[in-house]
Amino acid sequence: MKRLIFVIGVFIVALALSAFHWVGIIIGGLIVGYFSKNLKEAVAAGLALSLFIFGAFLAYLAYMGMLEKFLTLSPLPYISILLCMALAVISATITNFFSPFAVKQS
Q: Membrane-spanning residues where?
């Protein structure tokens, strides 16, 4: 239960950091990857983080009335979701290899 609360806190901190700069996505991925038990969990946490941040970005665009314009810019939505997913998943995966919390398989 403590890990779940911690991960939710990391998601919120990463969202706050990514509002100012894209490095927040990497920092969030690093933190969730560090506290993951194995590689599969690190990839899932990185993917969930990226979808959470991108969903918040889409909600912000909808609030500002710019979502329709953003979605009509054909390659831009695809590039932005792929970059968001790649940054979070790769940083979570790399960090998991050096994590003391990861269960080492023999």
A: 5-27, 42-64, 76-98
Query: With contact defined as beta carbons under 8 Å apart, do 49 and 11 qualify?
Result: yes
Kindly state the helix (H) or strand (E) to which residue 72 belongs, with its residue range.
Answer: helix 67-72
- 3-state DSSP assignment of residue 66: coil
Q: How high is the pLDDT of residue 105?
A: 65
Q: Per the structure block, which two tokens stand in for 93? A: 């995966």
What is the span of the domain harbouring residue 14?
2-96
103 part of a folded domain: no
Residue-wise pLDDT for 3-17, tens only, equals: 788 888 888 888 898
Contact 16, 2 (CB under 8 A): no
Domain count, the chain: 1
